[in-house]
Amino acid sequence: MSKGNDHGMVRVLVVGDTGVGKTLLLQRLHCYSVRHGGELLPISDPTAGFHVEVIPIHREPRHFLPGDRLDNSGATCAAFIEVGGNRNFGPSGQLPIRLMTVHGVIFIYDCHNIKSASNLKCWYDDLKNCNIVGGRNSPKVMLIETVLSSSKHGASVGPRGIPDEHLGTYLRERARDSVAHKQGLLARSWFRLVRWWSGRELSVSDFKHPRQHRGIRLRSALFLYRCFAVVENFLLYLMAVALFGPSQKSVLLWLPPVEAALATIEGDPSGTRTLNGCPLYGQKVFEETAACEIHAFLSTLDGT
């Protein structure tokens, strides 16, 4: 794929399931880059199709980590192409992704949304089939784990009267309510059982722990979750086949394991930069812990 660059700009594809914080991440990054007072845009509905956000890349030492190369001759802006979370960008999709030239790809999942991490394998395979990722000369990859809620309370107030630190919580709860409504009573009851047995809500980090470090209670909770996830995904697959035919690709017969999905992206031949625990619930904490890491990734993209 061509690596051409127009007007000092690199193009970055942003993919992930609906509700993982893709739009909120770009808003946080935009506030950090342009310094217009930290105001966020009004909360919108999930992205349909795709959305493009152009953000300046500051070539200043404060955006670089130790060991990063400081280069003022590269791109000055990044065009983030956020793809809607339905993964429908194939031949019938609205985004001609096969014809696009991109210099980087950012995969995003929510630390408390286990399925969003598993589905990254599907996102990766789709992009690999479009010759976007998977090669040594392919665009560089970044993997971001978002944190959309926090127990901390702040005084900053965002749009619609929602505190800045609670915006992520609002988006997450709205997405969770929508998913729970679709899952029905049986699914909600099962997940409540898993949460009761484990003593807390499961997260992606539970799947990252080495097996020998998992307690019996956690092992059994993960086993229960996997059992239901397999059954639920199989029923969704049958429904998708009944509605769209056996050639549909929106729902796979087997849901990829979380560990395998993350390992696939982290093992990309072009090299993967990983950012765990990216806080999106507050602008200040985002700038202190995550913004420099993302800018450092952008600085490594070759747009020439």
From TrEMBL:
Keyword Transmembrane helix: yes
PROSITE patterns per UniProt: SIGMA54_INTERACT_1
Record key words, sorted: Membrane, Transmembrane, Transmembrane helix
TM ranges: 223-245
Protein name (Swiss-Prot/TrEMBL): Uncharacterized protein
Organism: Trypanosoma vivax (strain Y486)
